[in-house]
């Protein structure tokens, strides 16, 4: 299902992939987030995604025009995961709601790995 809004002059439909890319871009701007993660289900290998593949680490679903976002991230070694998660949820929720005009109902964070940053 897509995000859907009616305006005075017509309808607006927002594709889930657009939402996923925007959420991914907002996520990697947060302190402590190294990047988005992709998991190979066959062998369980987690890899860090390049900036042009951000939406692959994000799953978006929409029900009753309310957005649920799953973020698969890799965090920086030595940071507080709970602090990173709180900041991430706050920033992504604000950015996506401002961008779309739709409500973000829930953001689930999956920490898939830790990287040491030089």
From TrEMBL:
Report the sequence similarity comment from the record: Belongs to the asp23 family.
Q: Which domain of life is it from?
A: Bacteria
InterPro entries, alphabetized: Asp23
Any one Pfam family match given in the protein's UniProt record, by short name: Asp23
Annotated source species? Mobilitalea sibirica
What this protein is called in its record is Asp23/Gls24 family envelope stress response protein
């Amino acid at each position: 299902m897509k995000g859907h809004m009616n305006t005075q002059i017509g309808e607006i439909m927002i594709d889930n992939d657009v939402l996923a890319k925007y959420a991914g871009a907002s996520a990697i701007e947060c302190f402590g987030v190294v990047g988005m993660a992709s998991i190979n289900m066959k062998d369980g290998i987690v890899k860090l995604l390049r900036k042009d593949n951000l939406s692959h680490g994000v799953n978006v679903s929409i029900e009753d025009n309310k957005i649920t976002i799953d973020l698969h991230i890799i965090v920086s070694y030595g940071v507080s995961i709970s602090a990173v998660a709180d900041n991430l949820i706050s920033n992504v929720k604000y950015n996506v709601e401002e961008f779309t005009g739709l409500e973000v109902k829930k953001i689930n964070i999956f920490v898939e790995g830790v990287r040491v940053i030089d």
